[in-house]
Amino acid sequence: MKLVITTRKPFSFAQTLRFVGRFAPCGDECQLTPKSLTAAVLIAGRPITFTLRSRGDDVECEAPDGISGDQLSARVRHFIGADDDVAAFYAASEGDEPMARLIAKHRGLHHVRFLTLAEIAVYCVMMQRAPIAMASALKRRFLARFGVAVPGSELRAWPELPALARLDGETIGEAINNKRRGKQIESVVRGVAAIGEARLRDAPYSEAREALLAIPGVGPFSAAAILLRGFGRMDELPVMQHFETAARELYGEAYDAESIARRYATQIGYWSFYLKTGVQSGSATRALRAKVAA
User: Fold this and answer.
1) Residues ≥6 apart with Cβ < 8 Å to 289
2) Given CA atoms 142, 222, 286, 90 in this order, what sign does their dihedral have?
3) Residue boundaries of the structural domains of the chain
4) Where are the beta strands (DSSP E) in the chain?
5) CB-hemisphere CA count at 13 Å for 178?
6) Which end of the chain has the lower number of beta carbons within 10 A, N or C?
7) What is the pLDDT along the chain (294 residues), one digit of tens a residue?
8) In angstroms, rounded to a whole number, what is the distance separating the alpha carbons of residues 221 and 237?
9) Homologous superfamily, domain 2-106
10) Which helix (H) or strand (E) holds 179?
11) Which H, E and C letters describe 37-63, residue by residue?
12) Contact indicator for 97, 45 with CB cutoff of 8 Å
């Protein structure tokens, strides 16, 4: 089965591939080639792999026959941010020269989400006070133990949230070799499952955020991560301080959090996404150049 995933322009699948390749928590669970991305997901309880390729300004999705094309299309659209209005973010950046330079470099990049709510519910605990390499390693251990095998593939699909909510913290802790985080994951997964995906996706941002903050083990950063990286909710960013280091690297002494918040308003989530993507990729490039020069 082949589907065409239309996208809101401007869109660049090449930028999507570059982002996934740099972002270990997603890239570790995909098979990447210079022109394609293959990932695993459950569709109506069936574990399958799907492969994405560029099709002009849109994306072609290839998957096994016999599954719901509508369900798969919705999942893929969510994953690659196909419907995001990046043009509105670009318009808001006019006059912001440092951000304009990042946009020029990453033009057409849409926000790549975590593929499922279950995935970000687990990962938001793993990334608390942990470098990305450590969090990604914990995530790989978790998926190796609890992921659903896809016949004929080395990839594993994330279990659905109700199945994860039945796991206990001791079992999780043993699987990832971290008892404390095992109990936290149990609490967060069960709390997120109790709230429900529909409420987190559709409720006013403040209501969804407060519901998440009521879960033991979820603080402001984790709540923002679930809404931003899990649902692509770009309308607010209540934890600007978590982006201050990257913002100061980009803007230098001209950095002013209040003026940035005013300028970008409901596009502030996209500002944070391009900030982190652009500054981190630039830092990695500079580090590589320094290593080669040494």
Assistant:
1) none
2) positive
3) 2-106, 117-230
4) 2-5, 31-33, 36-43, 46-55, 58-62, 148-149, 156-157
5) 17
6) C
7) 999 999 999 999 999 999 999 998 888 889 999 999 999 999 999 999 999 999 999 999 999 999 999 999 999 999 999 999 999 999 999 999 999 999 999 999 999 999 999 999 999 999 998 898 999 999 999 999 999 999 999 999 999 999 999 999 999 999 999 999 999 999 999 999 999 999 999 999 999 999 999 999 999 989 999 999 999 988 776 667 778 999 999 999 999 999 999 999 989 999 999 999 998 765 433 332 333 233
8) 10
9) DNA-3-methyladenine glycosylase AlkA, N-terminal domain (3.30.310.20)
10) helix 179-195
11) EEEEEEECCEEEEEEEEEECCEEEEEC
12) no
Q: Are 114 and 123 in contact (CB under 8 A)?
A: yes
Q: What residue type is 202 in one-letter code?
A: D
Whether the CB-CB separation of 183 and 211 falls below 8 Å is answered with no
CA dihedral 125, 127, 133, 139 (to 10 degrees): 20
Q: Which residue has the tokens 């912001």?
A: 96
Reported pTM? 0.91
Domain 117-230, architecture per CATH: Orthogonal Bundle (1.10)
Place of tokens 């016949």: 151
